[in-house]
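Risk register update: the risk of archive-format incompatibility is retired. Evidence:
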Amino acid sequence: MYDATRLTDKVAIITGGAGGIGAATARLFSQRGARVVIADIAGDRARAVADELPDALPVEVDLASEDSIIAMISATIAHYGKLDILDNNAALLDPDMGPKDIDIEHMESSTWDRTYAVNVRGTMIACREALPHLRSTGGCIINTVSNLALQGHVIQAAYSSSKAAIIQMTRSIAASHGRSGVRCNAVAPGMTMTPALKAAFPEHLRLLVEDETLRNQLGAPEDIAEAVAFLASDAARNITGQLLVCDGGAASHVPGYTAFRTAMGF
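Archived output:
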């Protein structure tokens, strides 16, 4: 019996494939029959994830480098002969960037430029280089953004605005290439309990976010992977140019939700 959620014989590139959400997505894609390219700036970690999976290809890639992105696409085609899915999951989340990505008044131009170079320009180049191959397979693109792209915040002005730019890029690609058989969608996680987040994010700040979530816990990498895998599959063949928010409802409610919940005894 045909299962539209299967990814049998699909070839997928997952950027940031060695990280929490990327690695979870790679494992799920592989379980559903895909052959996966684990593309990450951390080559050793990419190889470690690839070693877990059958017929997976690790590729070291720097999204700030056009040549590196072109080489990633070329390595995929040379190894597998085609490309069906591009999952643009990677983003600039270096620990040293966090304290620098603050409000606009105090933003250094170098922080802004580097964020956009990796997140927006890198995603654009990956899409551009993948599109001819995706057109030949009737493939798709999934761009990972963030619920911060939909809301104002007192920090992360560069990161959040770069993710908002990718949402519009998603719509543009869907409109430009839909009639040639290529779908393009975006997934917006909220705060997700990856190993890196658990290690680096202070618990009292995590609890502030958790209190604004409509579930009783923050999402896990596997939750985001399920959304990406759905959009990559034939089950989503009539979905393109869309944003799927996967943040446990954090972006969906009125201001003061947490205070009202406490006042009303919920």
